[in-house]
Design brief:
It is a single chain. 13% of the residues lie in helices and 43% in strands. The chain has three helices and 19 strands. Strands 5, 6, 7, 8, 9, 10, 11, 12, 13, 14, 15, 16, 17 and 18 form a 14-stranded mixed β-sheet that branches. The radius of gyration is 19 Å and the shape is globular.
């Protein structure tokens, strides 16, 4: 009998945005899109919104300029595509590094394709991560079509650093009952690399509710960069300031966003729930 291909993993989530983490200290695993898709499959694999390869920054030559961080977060969406950053994933990544003894301090830097990010693991194991600056797209023609029976919704394009289209819905639309399977974003050339789309309603002062459909993953229970995007857009449109936290409710829980010294910070839970070994099917091993 042929030897089975095994891979050690840890499973974690941040507000039910879940990830498979694979520690690759020798940088020997080069995951294929098929392997990522299988790992994230909720019936045939482990299930997850994405995969995080935990690799020493020193072993990722193309990011040698990020050597101030010991560990690089190699994040893949569930379809195998690569993303610049993942806010919920970054918090789970930080929690994993501390829990595994790969970092000893509760404050440290992590490296991502979007650059260096500072993280803080609090005493209650909530995690804060610096998300950089939000950058608005200089165009006013972005719309979201929700389908028959709905008017077009104007959307704001913003990078945090992933691309987002933030659509603020009127109070007459039920956000929880809204079907998000047939919407379209226009114009077609607005987001050539794909886009995360956030559907938002204002609940009260500094309190928002959001659902999100992520590029490469579909609708997820939460999106950290999306929470930053909607809080930033709300601040800009309301004329308020991000000097105090904004709460963003997502289907998987709540996140908090604040601006400090021009940087957005995302705070929320990060849980590790399982670890073990997965057996790849021979067709993709």
């Amino acid at each position: 009998m042929a030897k089975l291909a095994e891979l050690s993993f840890t499973k974690g989530h941040g507000t039910a945005n879940d990830f498979v983490l694979v520690q690759d200290s020798e940088a020997r695993w080069v995951p294929t899109a098929e392997q990522i898709q299988w790992l994230c499959n909720r019936r045939e694999g482990l299930g997850g919104d994405g995969v995080i390869r935990v690799v020493p920054t020193s072993r990722v030559p193309e990011y040698a300029d990020l050597a101030a961080a010991n560990w690089f977060m190699d994040y893949r969406n569930s379809d195998g595509s690569i993303a610049e950053m993942c806010g919920n994933g970054a918090r789970v990544f930080a929690r994993y590094l501390l829990a595994s003894g790969l970092e000893s301090s509760r404050e440290f830097l992590i490296a991502t394709r979007a650059g260096l990010h500072q993280v803080m693991v609090h005493e209650d194991f909530m995690v804060s991560v610096s998300m950089g600056q939000a950058r608005i797209m200089e165009r006013d023609d972005i719309t979201v079509d929700l389908g028959p029976g709905y008017d077009l919704v104007a959307a704001t394009g913003v990078n945090v650093p992933n691309p987002h289209a933030v659509a603020v819905l009127s109070s007459g639309i039920s956000l929880t009952e809204l079907s998000l399977t047939e919407f379209t974003v226009s114009p077609n050339d607005a987001f050539p690399e794909g886009v995360n789309v956030e559907f938002v309603q204002v609940k009260s002062d500094r309190h928002l509710q959001m659902r999100v459909v992520e590029r490469g993953s579909g609708e997820t229970m939460s999106c950290g960069t999306g929470a930053c995007a909607v809080a930033w857009v709300a601040m800009k449109t309301s004329g308020a300031d991000l000097d105090t936290e904004w709460q963003v409710d997502v289907p998987g829980g709540s996140l908090w966003v604040i601006e400090r010294d021009g940087q957005l910070w995302l705070r929320g839970p990060a849980e590790l729930v399982a670890r073990g070994k997965v057996l790849f099917p021979s067709s993709i091993a």
